[in-house]
Amino acid sequence: GTGTSARVTLPSRLVDSGGSYTITLGLTNFLMQYSMASATVEVTAISKQPAVSIAGPKKVSTTRASALSLRAIGTVPTCPGDAQERHALSYSWKVYKGSLFQSSVVSSSRDPRYFKLPAYTLEANAVYTVIVTASLDNEEASSRVTVEVGSAGVVAAIIGGGRRSGSTTSLIELESASYSIDYPANETAISYQWSCSEISPNY
Q1: pTM score, whole prediction
Q2: Distance, CA of 81 to CA of 4 (rounded, Å)
Q3: Residues 167-181: tens digit of each pLDDT
Q4: pLDDT tens for residues 110-142?
């Protein structure tokens, strides 16, 4: 129909459960300029079908040395005119590495809407899928993000600083304080290569 209202209500007697409908809006101003938009509505017999999404992009890039924090946004859509109710959605999170479920990767957050992992939980150079499921009265909805964990590299360091004195009558010993940023406690994660060059006297 036509009119001046910016809102339209479609009576339930005009739609069928399980059907999909396209609602089209045509807009005309006093200069007779015209624009059109449409939306698809899927009708279900379930009155309290939850919806959920994960805030932010669908692909997250991070490193093993960084903590991970995701937030779920769950809603229970209502029609205009319906009484506003507060629905207690239940949330559950699962992590997959490839197709393998990672049962040992569990959120540290006390708030079920958040999924938090401390640093050094995930493996470097790996891709994970994090899935959240929101449920209410045996109805549920899910959302997922891809988490790409890259490599942060290594830090090269020599104990004692970059300059010290030595004697030709005794050995000169140097010790590395280097480490892998991704696996700082794993000494086998890095290999060493020492070199020596004379910088003075320069004849």
Answers
A1: 0.65
A2: 19
A3: 666 777 878 888 888
A4: 999 999 999 999 999 999 999 999 998 888 899
